[in-house]
Design brief:
The chain is an alpha/beta fold. The protein has helices at 37-49, 74-87, 101-104, 121-128, 144-156, 184-191, 210-219, 246-258, and strands at 13-15, 18-20, 26-30, 54-56, 90-94, 110-113, 134-137, 162-166, 196-199, 224-228. Strand 5, helix 3 (101-104) and strand 6 form a beta-alpha-beta unit. The structure holds phosphoenolpyruvate (PEP) and manganese (II) ion.
Length: 263
């Protein structure tokens, strides 16, 4: 069902009234984790000022270490929704438990499924029964084929509104957090009709190369990019080393506009 052979034309995902994959480039931005109402408001306001309509923020955080910040849970979803409503933004947040999907639908506009859960088949099935679009991230050790089969799980359960996100894969390289598999972008576009994103933050883990990586992703045919923005990354409760602050985000958006990728 996700194959281009079955459906030659691009799927446009509708996040409320916001189209994704219609030729314009989409940007999903926001903090790694939702930490407080004020933190999310500051980022939401910056997005609004830059004309970005998709706000992200993690409420359920699938952390590698059990001792790391695990997220605010439902309270985080509530904070995100409130900021989204205040600034007229659509909100994207990761759900990790199939039992939370129904509840999440009351708060989020897009259900994110993270890299660590790309093959959580019960979660994929629950997302396939949801009435909200799904932002599916590639597993850090998943092949492109496995990634597409994960999307197939969702679409085959009745939810055709799926966005794919390349977020880097594990290699021996240490100077980036993951290795961005840029060739996955044109391959996914060729093999599938679904919109394709690149997460320029988790793929690189470096804030100094966000702009060239974003340009490469969009030049390779990506429909959009995801990036992490935090009012003060140095005190962030997760991913402090890779998030950009608001002035950096403003500069990033200016450069993207100058390069003609966004209007
Ligand atoms: C995220 O986007 O919040 C995240 C945890 O990324 P990933 O699942 O790609 O590691
Ligand atoms: Mn993060």
């Amino acid at each position: 069902l996700v194959s281009r052979k079955r459906r030659p034309e691009d799927t446009v995902v509708h996040v409320g009234e916001i189209p994704v994959g219609n030729g314009a480039k989409s940007i999903v931005a926001g903090p790694c984790s939702v930490e407080s109402e004020e933190q999310v408001r500051q980022v939401a306001q910056a997005l609004k000022e830059q004309g970005v309509s998709l706000l992200r923020g993690g409420a359920f955080k699938p952390r590698t270490s059990p001792y790391d910040f695990q997220g605010l849970g439902i309270e985080g979803l509530r904070i995100l929704r409130k900021a989204g409503d205040e600034f007229g933004l659509k909100v994207v947040s990761e759900i990790v438990n199939p039992a939370d999907i129904e509840l999440a639908e009351q708060y989020v506009d897009v259900i994110q499924i993270g890299a660590r859960n790309m093959q959580n088949f019960e979660l994929l099935k629950a997302a396939g029964a949801a009435s909200k679009p799904v932002f599916l991230k590639r597993g850090m050790s998943a092949t492109v084929e496995e990634f597409l089969f994960a999307a197939e799980y969702i679409v085959s359960r009745g939810n055709s509104q799926v966005m794919l996100c390349e977020r880097g894969i594990r290699t021996y390289e240490k100077w980036t957090r993951n290795t961005l598999d840029i060739s996955a972008v044109p391959i996914l576009k060729q093999e599938s009709h679904l919109p394709v994103f690149v997460d320029i933050t988790h793929s690189t883990g470096r804030r100094d190369i966000q702009l060239p990586v974003a340009r490469a992703a969009l030049a390779a045919g990506a429909d959009g990019i995801m990036l992490e923005v935090h009012p003060d990354p140095s005190v962030a409760l997760s991913d402090a080393n890779q998030q950009i602050d608001i002035p950096q985000f403003n500069k990033f958006m200016e450069e993207m506009r100058r390069a003609g990728f966004v209007t």
